Amino acid sequence: MQTSVPLAERIRPMNLGAFVGQRHLLFRGHPLREALEQQKPFSMLLVGPPGSGKTSLFALMAGRFPGAILTKGQDITAVWVRSLKDKGSPVVLLVDEAHRLSRIEQDRLLPMIEKGEAVFIGATTENPNFYLGRAILSRLSVFRFEALNPEEIVAILKRGVLFLQGGEQPAAPAFLEAWLDKIARAANGDARVALGMLERVYAQLLAKGSLPEPDHGRLMEIAGQAPLPYDRTGDEHYDEISAFIKSMRGSDPDAALYWLVRMIEGGEDPLFLVRRMLILAAEDIGNADPNALVLASALKQTIELVGLPEGLIPMVQVCIYLSLAPKSNAAYAALNQAKRALKTLGARPVPDFLRNPVSALDRKLGKGVGYIYPHDDPERIGNASFLPKGMESLSFYQPGDLGFEKVLKDRLEALKAKKRPTRSAKQKPESS
Predict the structure, then answer these.
(1) Nearest to residue 355, comparing CAs of 312, 389, 394, 306?
(2) pLDDT-derived band of residue 319, with 50, 70 and 90 as boundaries?
(3) Which band of pLDDT confidence, cut at 50, 70 and 90, is reported for residue 303?
(4) CB of 120 within 8 A of CB of 43?
(5) First-to-last CA distance in the chain?
């Protein structure tokens, strides 16, 4: 008998024994498992990627907790919440897509949770800190669901095959286990996606009586491409760009390339990635290899000229270069030191010898007097220090020993050795 109900909905587990995944939350003695077994719900929030089992666990809760009401965040209204309160007995509110709750609705729920009039159990794929207020979050125990691994998805797929072969579909040849493994790995941790792919592959099996040897291309032809777990505005966006930057900073070109391709395939704006590469070139490579910033700047222009997919080739080239370049954050550290000095020591006056004399009166008042013109100095240095009075001994830039920065370090040390508290050279009180 044909049905439009997705396979994922038809084979939802009916008890904890049939639930697959999230072992870190459902072992004996864990509060979440004890709440289910003892039928004693408490307010909580389940956070995790799509297809990791949150909705299936909700279905189990709805059957285990007396007075449970299953709904979605966008369906709750102030009038509806008040009607729950008017029932006079505590309710267990199972709210899927809890990130859709408005602040007004959260404010309506908060006193009910505080007074024990309602137990709030929410589920979301989003970072709750962005969508739920601190007041309601502080009343919830937050449990994080993990994406299912391929072995767990294979176990779910086997249950799906048994269900499909159990009478709802005509008899079919044996399902190749290698196909289950291919589907599990293509689903990117999402059981719902995997079961949808299984249905389409199974239909092909029924139509032709057999399946060819599994490979990724053939699977995509039959079942379609599984969406990558990526959201350009959500947690995955920030987590993957973090992984990308840290891989380049850690000199791992293979990992950097993986995260780069994964984000591009997920639909990320290439110019966003290039901007992050520009920052890394200055912050993490700096003067250890000044060419890094030049290449990253050229990459931005290249992407603007050619776009994707061709632009991915120079992106990969620069990604590898940045990953393998010598690293130094000395320039970034110098910036922070200078900011700290400004904050702690204040904006001290510009020394007279550094002031700009634009008139005879300025010179009479001392502006520019004492300035040593570097080109009139045999060492081409000029004054011993150009910092404000009382700050002459400060040193912000501390170059490292890698790459070109070693050359700069030697140069800086030599310059400091040549500087003296007083210098004899032709003083030139001129405009800068």
Answers:
(1) 389
(2) very high
(3) very high
(4) yes
(5) 88
Residue 345 tokens read as: 């020591």
State both tokens at 198.
């299984």
Both structure tokens of 325: 């370049």
User: What's the one-letter identity of residue 379?
Assistant: E
- Is a pLDDT exceeding 60 seen at residue 386? yes
Beta bridge mates, 257:
none
Half-sphere exposure of 74 (CA within 13 A, CB side): 1
Q: Which residues contact 373 (CB under 8 A, 6 or more apart)?
A: 382, 425, 426, 427, 428, 430
pLDDT tens sequence across 110-167: 888 888 878 889 988 888 888 888 888 888 999 999 989 999 999 999 888 888 877 5
Residue 17: band (very low, low, confident or very high) from pLDDT cuts 50, 70, 90 = confident
φ and ψ of 26, to 5 deg: -120, 20
Question: For residues 308 and 269, what is the distance between their CA atoms, to the nearest angstrom?
Answer: 10
CA dihedral sign of residues 13, 14, 20, 21: positive
Per-residue pLDDT tens for 267-293? 888 999 999 999 999 999 999 999 999
Place of tokens 């439009």: 4
pTM of the model: 0.65
How far is it between the farthest Cα atoms of the chain?
A: 105
Burial (0-12, 13-18, 19+ Cβ within 10 Å), 70: middle
Output the CA–CA distances (angstroms, integers) from residue 203 to 132, 208, 220, 222, 245, in the order listed.
42, 9, 14, 9, 43
For 425, the token pair is 């050279």
- Burial of residue 406 (CB within 10 Å: 0-12, 13-18, 19+) is middle
Q: Find where tokens 């729950």 sit.
A: 84
Q: How far is CA 188 from CA 70, 156, 233, 332, 356, in A?
A: 27, 14, 19, 38, 64
Q: Is 328 left (phi over 0), alpha (psi -120 to 50) or beta?
A: beta
Tokens of 162: 């048994």
Which of 24-28, 93-97, 206-210 has the lowest average pLDDT? 206-210
Q: Is the pLDDT of residue 425 over 60?
A: no
| C-alpha–C-alpha distance, residues 99 and 121, integer Å | 12
Nearest Cα to 198, choosing from 223, 173, 170, 165? 223
Residue 253 CB partners (closer than 8 Å, separation 6+): 247, 319, 320, 323, 324
